[in-house]
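Per-residue structure
===
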Amino acid sequence: MSDFTKARYTAIISDLHLTEEEPVNLEYPLWKKYKTREFFFDRDFAEFLKTIEMKAQGEKIELILNGDIFDFDSVSSIPNDPPFRISWLESKRGLHPQEEKSIYKFHRIHDGHREWFMALSNFLRKGHRVVFVIGNHDLELHFPKVQQALIESLGINKEEKERVKFTEWFYISNQDTLVEHGNQYDPYCLSIDPVSPFVQKYNKIEIRIPFGNLTTRYLINGMGFFNPYLESNFIMTAGEYVKFFFKYIMRAQPFLMFSWLWGSMVVLVQSFLDSLLPPLREPLEIEGRIEEIAKRSNATPRMVRELRSLTAAPATSRPLLILRELWLDRAFLVTLAFLLFLQLFFVIDQIYDISFYWMLIPFALFMPFFIFYSKTVTSSVHMFKEPQEKILTMASLITGVNRIIYGHTHIHRHEIIGPVEHLNSGTWSPAFEDVECKKPIEQQTFIWIYPEANELRKAKLYQFDGGRVIDVFGSKGGKMRRIN
């Protein structure tokens, strides 16, 4: 058996968002351009693994794939001859998170990234270890048969399979580093119960999908000019949306408003109904389940319970917040005003024979109020990009480590926050500041933990750029921050 409790060299990457390949749209080439093969990095990943092997100087490496390695939410295709029932909604926005359907989605991802899986397979055959920490976009890895499909896709033998591990939401490396994807502290993207992530809908068992991921499935998947991997691509002001519509969308998707409206309604209803479902659990097996999670994560059952207690409250517990994030509050306000003004017009028209254009007067009076209200409403999504000192300190006390590593935010960082050394591994995803995919954010960052002369391990943040390993802060004049 491979010993996962000890490690000298550890590499951590997160947020690769591997998903199915999007065919190039010849008529509208910017449609989901970020998902086309042009921006796949499978070969870079293979070179990255070879590079860290050289950095380890022949010693074995612990590779931690810290969540959102796969993006099941962005797989929207359906099989030609499905062995399962597909609803109309699934045919438009992708399959529900049920085990047999998740296996199909995994195979779609695998078919587009065979070189990536081959590189990981070769890495395992050399005696290294791989840990999958489940994130919010690959929650479907909780299904045992999806994990089995992943293992089979690597083509490894029994001994090599023992060097692959899946953990629910955290992992403790070498008793000195806590690694979490970080979505459990984001109300929009957390798994409500990471110990019991399944729910039962009618006679089907599904993964409970967070609100943020439902927006990817039912909104972003139907609006192909918005890149889901960078928030500034889809969270804008009203004026920015209007400019974006006329510049990119008007010809390709003139009825975008209807796609947004019905997609938002689906997200609202689905997230609300899902929040009412109790987690699927067997009371007599709960303690055994916690012990299993603890063993896989190099933790104790007490640590599992206490870390779970740090989880944020889900955004779905605040329906008005969800309405604002989806812009449905403004849609309902305009609809209500229109109906009231229409009723007023009909009443007056019974007494005086007036033109319908008189309706413009109350609308003109209503617009300043509406614009003022719209400007006061801002998205709170960005608030949860910053690590919280209280959470970091509590997690440090619970696990007995002084180094905590997250992913999830796509923002790489290295800083001292209170008593804790905090790092974020950034992203490898095709995140661009523009729809033309010409302005990438800083990508392919990773964390490297290695032993110093005194055998204590040190962590550094690097970027893998065209075969070169760049010290992110050292080479660019930056330095690790201290936040007191």
In short: The chain has 15 helices and 15 strands. Residues 476-480 have pLDDT under 50 and may be disordered.
